[in-house]
Amino acid sequence: MTDAQKTAAETALRTTGGAPPDDDVPVDGQPTPLLEPRDGIPPVVATDEELAGVVAAFAAGTGPVAVDAERASGYRYGQRAYLVQLRREGAGSALIDPVGCPDLSALGDALADTEWILHAATQDLPCLREIGMVPSRLFDTELAGRLAGFPRVGLGAMVESVLGYALEKGHSAVDWSTRPLPEPWLRYAALDVELLVDLRDALEKELDRQGKLDWARQEFDAIAAAPPAPPRKEPWRRTSGMHKVRRRRQMAAVRELWTARDKVAQRRDVSPGKVLSDSAIIEASLAMPLNVQALMALPGYGHRMGRRQLEQWQAAVDRARALPDSGLPQPGQPVAGPPPPRSWADKDPAAAARLSAARAAVSELAERLNMPQENLITPDTVRRVCWEPPGDRSEAAVAEALTAYGARRWQVEQVTPLLAAALAANS
User: Which top-rank group of organisms is this from (predicted)?
Assistant: First the structure.
């Protein structure tokens, strides 16, 4: 355990109401297993009447609210929430079923002026937004851990190193669309928000001790203010194994198979990978089979697959084969921004030298600040500034460029002198 972790843990054990006395939770010893929520497993809220009670209770609570959501990734289509967990002082914990209560906007409105505590907020915010829950202020305990220099920032690791408890994480990848949800899963879900407020308070003190609290608040504000991510352009290009596909007509087959699979998965509400694997899509695209019999001989299209399914995949391949050349996709994705860095030495040696110097300076500063480089400044931002630097190379111009690329004020203040020097030395 690092000195920073020891300080955070000791502070948490002294100051957080949810943690037991120091002699019950050893800072450097074995963590104490957290087996049951302090108030027991709350009942699952699945009706409008029950939801109204939760809204009233949480509106009357005090302090920040801990929020978590469980999805059914790998089982269902999309990333919708299948359980929402909350905890707040004065209200206790709540487990809400978004299938029975698909509109949680009343709860979101009741908590509009409250700070929300989430772990890895960007993972849960999209599915929470879909059901009407959008925070105006938040505290991300995972991001706080990164900024504070913790080497492991998963929720279980953070709770263990900061608060001295061991969370049971055996149900993180289960099918949360299952109904009714088994009691062990509900216990696990309730425990995920049990100590989030305590963790938040301890991390806030640690960030303040390191002089990084204002940096963290800027990051949290940026997450809360960020608009929903736009849909991916040409998502079929992200099919695993796509690098094997070289010819445009084969690429068209990937596109047709991916699109057909997506429609089936959406209609059946199952994960696309359960309909047809990415590897099967690539196999058929490379082979371009002429008929169902040839398709059946390929990996991923064995005898377990029904005739109707085989015919729909063969039809997708046939559509790709019938396309005119003008309808075939172009190789490679349109690249926004600079080319891959590996090609810079040939395309622009001066830019390659700028990038090398900038990366070295950012790496050294990140190590000195005890945080990951990508949290100090995103690699994409560094590449963009080095590929197309501002005309006069001054610190003011570099700061303006970083701000335009979305860097926060604290990042601009920390990184601008380094990048300006790297640009000036490699003009």
Answer: Bacteria
The number of CA neighbours under 13 Å toward the Cβ of 20 is: 12
Report the half-sphere exposure of 40 (CA within 13 A, side-chain side): 3
**SS3 at position 73:** coil
Q: Taken in order 117, 121, 123, 127, is the CA torsion positive or negative?
A: positive
| Amino acid making up residue 383 | R
Task: Express each pLDDT in 65-100 by its tens digit.
Answer: 999 999 999 999 999 999 999 999 999 999 999 999
Side chain identity, residue 189: A
CATH code where residue 374 lies: 1.10.150.80
At 209 the three-state DSSP class reads helix
DSSP 8-class letter at 143: H
Q: Nearest Cα to 422, choosing from 344, 362, 348, 346? A: 362
Residue 19: the pLDDT is 40
How many domains does the chain contain in total? 3
Q: Give residue 267's Cα distance to chain centre.
A: 26
Tell me which of 174, 203, 225 is where a domain ends: 225
Token pair belonging to 43:
């009942």
Whether 336 is in a domain gets the answer: no
d(CA 328, CA 320): 8
Per-residue DSSP letters for 7-70?
A: HHHHHHHHH-TTS--GGGS-SSSPPEEE-S-TT-PPPEE-SHHHHHHHHHHHHS-EEEEEEEEE
Q: Taking 90 as the threshold, does the pLDDT of residue 204 lie above it?
A: yes
Can you point out the beta strands (E) in 40-191? 44-45, 62-71, 81-89, 92-96, 115-118, 137-140, 165-167
Domain hosting 54: range is: 3-225
Domain boundary among 327, 354, 374: 327
Half-sphere exposure for 42 (CA within 13 Å, toward CB)? 25
Give how far the C-alpha of residue 218 lies from the chain's centroid of Cα atoms, to the nearest Å: 18
387 has pLDDT over 90: yes
Question: Do residues 240 and 211 share a domain?
Answer: no
Residue 88 DSSP SS3: strand
